[in-house]
Amino acid sequence: MSAVRRLLLIENHLSSKFPNTPQEKGLENFRKLETKVNHNILAKHYFDYFYEAILYTRKIFDESPLFNHEESLGSSIEDYRGKIVEQLKCIYSKFHMSYEKDLANPLYKCSPIYAMTEYDQSLSTRMLVHIILYTDTIQNLGTEKHRELIDRAYALKDYGSFGMTELGHGSDVGRLETTAIYNPKTGGFTLNSPTATSAKWWIGAIANTANMSIIFARLIIDNVDKGIQAFAVPIRNYETHDTLSGVVLGDCGKKISHDGIDNGFILFKNYEIKYDCLLDKLSQIKNGKFKSSIKNKEKRLGIMMGSLIRGRFCVVSGSEINTRSCLTIAIRYGALRKQFGNPNEESILSYQTHNCRLVTGLAKTVAMRCASKVIGDMYKAVKPISDVNPECDELNEFHSVLSSLKCVCSWYGIAISQECREACGGHGVSKYSSLGRHRGYVDVHATWEGDNTVLAQQTSKYILKILQKSFKGQKFIAPTLNFLNIDFQEVKTFKSLFTSRKEFENEKCIISLFEHRVNFLTHTSVMKLQESSMKYSDMTTAWNNSQIFYIQDLSKSFAELIMAREFIKLSDNIYKDCKETGIIIKKLFYLYSADRILDSISLYLESAFTHVQEKIIKETFIKTAAELTPASLHIVDALSASDKILGSVIGSSDGQAYTRMIDAVESELKCYYKPKWLHLIKDIRGS
Amino acid sequence: MSAVRRLLLIENHLSSKFPNTPQEKGLENFRKLETKVNHNILAKHYFDYFYEAILYTRKIFDESPLFNHEESLGSSIEDYRGKIVEQLKCIYSKFHMSYEKDLANPLYKCSPIYAMTEYDQSLSTRMLVHIILYTDTIQNLGTEKHRELIDRAYALKDYGSFGMTELGHGSDVGRLETTAIYNPKTGGFTLNSPTATSAKWWIGAIANTANMSIIFARLIIDNVDKGIQAFAVPIRNYETHDTLSGVVLGDCGKKISHDGIDNGFILFKNYEIKYDCLLDKLSQIKNGKFKSSIKNKEKRLGIMMGSLIRGRFCVVSGSEINTRSCLTIAIRYGALRKQFGNPNEESILSYQTHNCRLVTGLAKTVAMRCASKVIGDMYKAVKPISDVNPECDELNEFHSVLSSLKCVCSWYGIAISQECREACGGHGVSKYSSLGRHRGYVDVHATWEGDNTVLAQQTSKYILKILQKSFKGQKFIAPTLNFLNIDFQEVKTFKSLFTSRKEFENEKCIISLFEHRVNFLTHTSVMKLQESSMKYSDMTTAWNNSQIFYIQDLSKSFAELIMAREFIKLSDNIYKDCKETGIIIKKLFYLYSADRILDSISLYLESAFTHVQEKIIKETFIKTAAELTPASLHIVDALSASDKILGSVIGSSDGQAYTRMIDAVESELKCYYKPKWLHLIKDIRGS
């Protein structure tokens, strides 16, 4: 906080024009309604392998004056970005990252990013772009000679960016337009942006910060297009930070979120780079001839995009974190805010219309954290295998799990953050609530690191391939799909036999329902595809016309099954340490399941259950949301960072929403103030 | 545009660092796929009684340099607000409003607001707060002596605001804390804000502009609370614009949208006002005694909030307008943006995943316009009746229709604007797309002019009362509910008999399905209420616990029936003038209906139709969306304002999205620029 601002704040406190308010007791009283949640045990299990990093990083944020939301809110975009560079340095210096540590623990790099997202996703994304998108690409696609670049990246000697997307192409990476023409004389390449749409666009760290960038470009040898390759390219002078000759770098301008990221564009004009800029693990040029260990261009491109794996992991985590922040705010506000009721006003959170929104959102958030856990665990297992064989089954399976979870979690986040904004009414519109910031952060998750509708198709394609292989009796490694049933007759006649809430609230019963949905959609998607293939001349068109109600839903149903399984594991683990907390998390799982099953109600009504059973699930949903309402406050309390990190006046843990709102408003320089255009008012009123 | 900016733009054009791009033909080519939409006929019927005002106002926006989104985007909040005052004056001077005109045509005042929202909802809301919320309150609740205030308002001699909401109370108006203590000696009142939470909060025009405000306050006579009354109160000196002594006015600070509105707070400290400030049509004080023609406090409060009627009307319209702008942008962008396809790249709009999102959104938007039409027509009919008898049946019915439409339309808008943002991918995140602005504008609609979940209950309460009356054989006037069936057995066994898409695509068939849903939910809500009332001690608790799956859905189903009916009328009217355009709008109606019926699929599967019929509706949905895709571009073209008014680089009618994006980005002063914190980069990289 600047000295001027601090003084102003003190002055305002002393000279506030508002009547004194007694301490608000609403939140405190609501907390007393429930005491069964063991905050520590819950947090430990919830954050799991990120637990230590979270505690460590939260401490830094809490203690260092570098981190201050109020200040960021008041500063210009330029200053905000500058501050983030300082913050990055601070965090970076505490984590001592290195290639060796990364090799030893594939999640090591992700933990500061996870923890930083709690404070500000603009900040964590800046780290992610450099240490994951940029560095992972070199690690994945480079060779021994690129080792120096990797070390420089970890030492932050280079600050890297990731030049994949162009103005004209995002999802369709195969059609990028930037060219890298091989020069047989020098053995190097010439980079060019032949069209305006070929400008690399939205590239994080380009406008101001990066001196290096990965560039995905179309390799041309002897006028023959060899497909997309990745290059690690210097873009700014290491000493002066001036843009290098032949390169144009600019700022992508105003955005609706992520002001802290200096997204920019890159143009190349006959920019000469050396051969060694080519990340040549998969493909090389020898004696002027192109060679690749992966012949299939599409497959090769898929592998080349491997650096997006941890990027997508961070998207899933980021969705969970921002959504959790929104819910922390909305649930606390819902507990302290009172409206209606007779004779006493009631917390709005106690109304069915309110808790069905928010407590369900909380259940989904825990499911999102479970998604992260699955990805983390799978990644740790898959990485060593795929490092040896990038075409292994395990990686394909992992990719399909990751893609579907990325879609579902980002869409959950978008919906829940909006619910939270609405649940906080007008005060949710105030920037001091910070809901707008978090909503803006999750919003982009549907788009970056792969558009959701495109990613969903990759998962479904994988599941359908596995089914096809099963039909043919082929073996494959896909433990996540071991329940796939090739007998559609059996699937179509599946019946769930629960007859009461108690029988429904049973892990086996619920998992069988989640599995049934995947099976059902797998088979109906196949049938739909067969039907479409009769109608359209080519398989691509047939595929594109079998999306809605089928292929898109299949991917989602698979993701939710994965999350449900992990949710059970989480609740079991917590139960072992604290029975009462475990029971609450199990209830949260039932709520999640009821909500998700009702979301596909017509599918289930085809065979799996009856309208009577539907009503049991609806009752479960409503009752569980109500029963969990007091606990929901403890759950967000247990998982939330400090008020300083959360930075929301209406969501602070002390429940002093109104006083804090007044403080924030009165601290603005323009709170009590006449605008310079007063004459215009007189003018309009004289008219 | 400032001279500096203009020069910069020209300079950028000349010195652009981007390669020249040939004219993009994507949008133009897409337009050629369909030619059957008669733009003029469609626009005329669509805008209906707003048609003239729209054309008139669009011309002003197009011709006056006062209106310029690019400039607003670049200016400070203070300058933006000042510009809006100038814009207000400009529009105001063209519409020559007066009390007489308002009496002659209840929609007259709404037309400039409708038209202004197309340009900028911050602008139109500023008009709305003054000429509707402020002025209508005086018109509705004032008496002959307040006539002068009304005339001053229309002449813009006074600029008014509407002080209802407080920091601590929004929906629960009955619990507002501001007090107005009657002083028997002077015959006047003393206004006080006894607590911090009693500060009037979020009040539009308070921070800078208004000199008058309606104040809702608790009237105290002789220490007895007489309930909430409305007062018209001066808050700033008419000449100097200084805040009057005893009044505190301030700015509510930073918001996530609506920067153009100077929302503020009001505090009173022993502020003395005259008796005549009381708007005393319904309640008076005579000889120190309180009298009211409406004895029931709750009923009285309801009538006092009558000025929100036209406010809610504008919310419905505003949702439609902003959503339409989003779709104009997303559909045009979807047509010109190409990705994937073999051998030629295809417009992303031609993919099922894309057109099912956007064309359905368009169908909903037309339904939203139909909602406005219904409200407009009903209001014209109801106003003269309710002016005489504010407790008339017609007003109650109108209120129930309006409340439900406000909820549904705002929620449609929120969902569709988000779909549009996602459909435009990364470029939807750019402020130059303007999607963020529109999304921000619809977002608040769920909250202001009455929280959606609260309003929905008012509609359902009305419907259930009507059913109750029917049970008792009582007569009532509610033409919108003439289909209510008191026989639940009959409702429960209703069967729809369509066996093909063709049979489904029939207005009678569809309306019977919409009506069935209302009937079904009416009865199941009654049953749920009965069940709840056995469980809970009081009816309020029973009511609150019968919301989800019942009372909330009932209101929504009613709104969608109303919209569906009007949609048919609209398509019939267009059909009369142009058969081909009419057929397209009818198809849009089928798409809307299919989508909405699928939204309640489990209800329908209980009796109304089978899974086989469900599949027919799903096929209808997918096929209709695909068939309407080429027409969708013409529909948005026909209805959209000019590129200048729309202000979106990716949604402009010429389809030059990329060139315009580049222009916008290069026109920023900080496009090619080194930040002042360059040393921090060197610092971090040295670390």
From TrEMBL, chains A, B:
Q: Which amino acids does the record list as binding FAD?
A: T165, G204
Q: Where the protein is mainly located, per its record?
A: other
* Alphabetic keyword roster: FAD, Fatty acid metabolism, Flavoprotein, Lipid metabolism, Oxidoreductase, Peroxisome
Q: Which residues form the Acyl-CoA oxidase C-terminal domain?
A: 508-678
Q: Can you say where in the cell this protein is located?
A: Peroxisome
UniProt KW Chaperone keyword: no
Cofactor(s) it depends on: FAD
A Gene Ontology biological process in which this protein takes part is: fatty acid beta-oxidation using acyl-CoA oxidase
Query: What GO cellular component is one of the record's annotations?
Result: peroxisome
User: Which InterPro entries is this protein grouped with?
Assistant: ACOX_C_alpha1 (IPR055060), Acyl-CoA_Oxase/DH_mid-dom (IPR006091), Acyl-CoA_Oxase/DH_mid-dom_sf (IPR046373), Acyl-CoA_oxidase (IPR012258), Acyl-CoA_oxidase_C (IPR002655), AcylCo_DH-like_C (IPR036250), AcylCoA_DH/oxidase_NM_dom_sf (IPR009100)
Query: Which SUPFAM superfamilies does UniProt cross-reference here?
Result: Acyl-CoA dehydrogenase C-terminal domain-like, Acyl-CoA dehydrogenase NM domain-like
Domain Acyl-CoA oxidase C-alpha1 positions: 306-464
Q: Which residues form the Acyl-CoA oxidase/dehydrogenase middle domain?
A: 161-270
Superkingdom of origin organism: Eukaryota
Concerning Pfam families, the annotation shows:
ACOX, ACOX_C_alpha1, Acyl-CoA_dh_M
The Gene Ontology terms for molecular function here are: acyl-CoA oxidase activity; FAD binding; fatty acid binding
Q: Which residues form the active site?
A: E449
What family does the Swiss-Prot or TrEMBL record give for this protein? Answer: Belongs to the acyl-CoA oxidase family.
> What is this protein called in UniProt?
Acyl-coenzyme A oxidase
